[in-house]
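Researcher: Please predict.
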Amino acid sequence: MPQERLPLRKIREVIRLDHETNLSNRAIARACRISNSTVGEYLARAEQAGLGWPLPDDLDEASLYQRLFPEKSEESQPKRPVPNWKDVHRELSKRGVTLTLLWQEYREEYPDGYGYTQFRLYYQRWNKSKTGTMRIPRKGGEEMEVDYAGITVPITNPETGEISQAQVFVATLPASNYTYAEVQASQKLAPWIGGHVRALSFFGGTPKTICPDNLKSGVKSAHRYEPELNPSYQEFAEHYQVAVLPARVRKPRDKAHAENAVQNVERWGLAPLRNRTFFSIGEANRALAPLLKELNQRKMKHLGKSRQELFEELDQPVLLPLPERPYEFATWKNAKVNIDYHVAFEGHYYSVPHHLLRQEVRIRASETMLAIFLHGEQVALHPRSSAQGRFSTRAEHMPANHRFVLNADADWFQRKAKKVGSSTLAYVQALLRSRRYPQHAYRSCLGILNLAGKTPHPQMEKACQTLLEADLLSYRDLKAELKRLNAEKTPSKPLPEHENLRGSAYYQ
């Protein structure tokens, strides 16, 4: 048999020339540009198959090859018991089970059965025929694959009618293909990690590893061998004691089960909802839930069991237990301790021990608490506050007698203000008294002294006196007043002399 089968066009030409001309096989070979032996073999196979000229009109390429190269009949082969490949595939998903072990058990039951090489070959053929590629069985409870669907869900704002596109988060356990999905507002860090937390709660346990895509929310920098995770995602992994192993860039087969789960969610979950209008994320999730349940309970034809049945058989018994409390999402930020021994986070100021002035620290902010770390050690903890411009100060963080090192204390600010004038001094003193702790006014005092260095002292004095009378005590108020005084001081330029100007006498 030739190493490569001829295309249908050349096979037809060989048979036609043989029937319609008196050319020899060698001449036909030269005309078709193939070897003489190939011509002889195809003509012999055509004669055995009963094919003459012209060929039947309905004979396509696949049918022609089947008639020319019929597979050996299995009836001529000695009958051997054929394993149930579905059961073999399912057993391979269990921990510790190998193909060698299953073959040994098969031979114990059928001593005249296939040898190991044939056993492995026939299983690989069966496996490949079900997926188009060689599918490696995953062990139960080993891994969770996650991804976002390509289809989004339109969410209509009931007040404005504006439509936003919500994302669909999908997680699956490869051994059973048991699937979880939810609609999220975006692919940002908070919903990304929240989807993981709710997926693990849905599965009722924790796998050993999680395989995500290289989404920026989860993977700070992609790398084939040592990807760097986002700090919040890393903290989530440590909380659940799982290893995060991101898929390689542009290698979809690394998370093939997630790709398949996304496709199933799109077909059986999102497509049926395509004509519905949703006014909130919650409404969309409530509509998706029963369709997701139906997907997991539907029997898979090639395995004869549903995803839920396989989950209960393969994954559920070996998943690790969940921690006592679910992970609470937190964001991380670098900050520098200011001279008032406070750090700023989203417009609010939190105290740290006063000896950490000008140190670089790390802030961890959850929904309810804010922790501050120096070199990995927690140095402060506060309830999180959303009050803009306010201070959260712990008494133990304050220096003795409310004084700073580096001469940055209330007396220092007053000495500097006195050099400008009595009104500036009075304004700084009033500002210091207006705060619960004097330190809370230090940032404003620094700003005021900075303005004083750029402004003529008489103008500074006048602005401070005006604001003292109006009881307006802040850096912003002073800056605005100075701007107003500067505008009044600058005279408007007179109009240039011009022959077309009428002058005031014209109107008398």
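Model: The two ends are 119 Å apart (CA to CA).
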